[in-house]
Amino acid sequence: MNTNISFKIKVLKWIPALFIFSASWYLSSQETIEHLPSFWNADKLVHCLCFAGLSFWVSFACNISVKKQFWIPSVIVSVYGIIDEIHQSFTPGRSCSVFDWIADTVGALLGAFIFLFLVNLICRLRARDCNGAERSA
Question: What is the DSSP letter of 66?
Fold first, then answer.
């Protein structure tokens, strides 16, 4: 494959993650966020789910495929969670919370795990399909 095309593909793979980074940063800049669930600690669930999605797409962009690489997107997203919490502390009406960062980090681990699980599942299914096709022929 052409090196220029390969580079463009690598850049394009970051678009979903960059979108979530941007949305998260924007929401951290808001004094209040309407339409959040109203149950106890709902914000922790929102943090966890948002950062799980972010970690999933960072995993995709980083091409993780083995357990040894699991930590890469988890650390990137967890560090972003720290930066986001500090950024949020400068927004009137908002605060920096270690518990929000913990929810961010749990989400980061969850998203990387789900991505790795799906990659391995797809690889096993492809191998099974290939083996089945060889036996049929």
Answer: S
Buried/exposed code over 53-92 (b: 16+ C-beta within 10 A; e: otherwise): bbbbbbbbbbebeeeeebebbbebbbebbeebbebbeeee
Query: Helix axis angle, 98-136 relative to 42-62, nearest 10°?
Result: 50
Instruction: State how far the Cα of 44 lies from the Cα of 103, in Å rounded to an integer.
Output: 6
**Interatomic CA distance for residues 81 and 54, integer angstroms:** 11
Query: How many CB atoms within 10 Å of residue 95?
Result: 9
Residues 58 and 14: their CA atoms lie apart, in Å, by 7
Give the Cα separation of 43 and 126 in Å (integer): 39
pLDDT digits (tens, 9 = 90+) for 75-116: 999 999 999 999 999 999 888 999 999 999 999 999 999 999
